[in-house]
Amino acid sequence: MLGSTKVQKMDGEHKKFVRFRPTTLDSQISMGSESDVPLRSGFSIDSSSVDSGMRRGWQRSSKGFFKLGQSLRFKSSSHVYDDDIPTEKTWNYLDPTSKALHRWNTLFLASCLVAVFIDPLFFYLPQVDFSRSCIQISNQLTIAVTVFRTITDFFYVVHMFLRFRTAFIKPSTRFFGRGELVTDPRAIAARYFKFDFWIDFAAVLPIPQVVIWLVIPNASSSVTRNINTKNALRYIVVFQYFPRMLRIFPLLSKIINSTGVLLETAWAGAAFNLLLYMLASHILGSLWYLLSVERQDSCWKQTCAIVVNGSCSKQYFDCDWNESSSTLWYPNFTNQSNLFCNGGSTDPNAVVFPYGIYGNAIAQQVSSISGILFSQTYFYCLWVGLLALSSLTQTWSVSTFVGEIIFTILIIIIGLLLFAFLIGNMQVCSFSLRACICLVT
């Protein structure tokens, strides 16, 4: 833990040093240490070099930002350039050992988990009209998801602002139980730009909102808007999901390094492990939903190519296409696609499209635009993801489609990793329990 701070003059400059208490120094790099003695803004400066009038001026200048950063405990960084020149510059910085910053890290971790929960909901936007063999984007669900996504983006913006104002301990000075506290705003910004800024910047970009509401409506015609939105969702959500997931792991390590454990009670740790398992099931279930729509779209294209004896435009599979009634081949296409692609055949020996693991999505019509509520669709997909993750896809019948095989392999790998993570946490809890028993006895 960090102890007292001290100002010493080295090379003609006043530098602040932090004295560590006898604990592991590596655990103090975290932004959220639970130190009982936080860094203080009033440093031990000789009264002969700074008179009482300057101290009163410093107090008056700190009143404005004290109210602004009261919850996060802003500190004041004082730079004295010369003893005989009474000049002092102050700016607001955050104590890296304060409990308030630790609480913010915990809150931001919760918001990151909510953010990675909301993003897969974009995969549920495409819905299927089984009677017309076309795709429609749900406007109500689009509005709800984009609003919640914007709220979570706000937490990322606040966190980036706080990172620019959080002091840090210079790694090269952490020896013999001491460390220099760096409060220079340029050094703090340079360190943030060097390490975590670009990950935070990629995670906070409102790419789904901009693409869905601005880019696609203005760049494509109305008869292909739904298809283009479905195709864009495959890339933009997955592209931003990686930096959002990467942002969680540094926060976990910071909280664990500062307190020794992530959560203080055993039941809270078990709930967190269950939350990770359910989050993985939620992500896999939403991917399974979107990929089932993709496979159904592939079946329509194959059927349409047979009916028209050539290639088919993607506008034929968009529900906003209004020329279907005047097209001679379209009734034949809907009949054939209903039998071959949409599960409309009652003959058990009929030849149907090899959906493989997506067969239940077509049989139950979980992506139907009518006749099923979104809550039913969501919980069914969550059940599918949980079942596949817990059984390692042993309950699925996989076809020879390469994309489908790769998807099942990823599910198996994720399931094994989560199981190993759970076993590791159980070993840590068991070791902590044995240590407590030894201390008591």
TrEMBL record:
**Keyword Transmembrane part of the UniProt annotation:** yes
Keywords of this entry: Ion channel, Ion transport, Membrane, Transmembrane, Transmembrane helix, Transport
Q: Name one Pfam family in it.
A: Ion_trans
SUPFAM superfamilies per UniProt: Voltage-gated potassium channels
Q: Which Gene3D superfamilies match?
A: 1.10.287.70
* Membrane topology field: Multi-pass membrane protein
Q: Where in the cell is it found?
A: Membrane
Recorded hits in InterPro entries, A to Z, give:
Ion_trans_dom
**Record-given protein name:** Ion transport domain-containing protein
Q: Which species is listed as the source?
A: Ceratodon purpureus
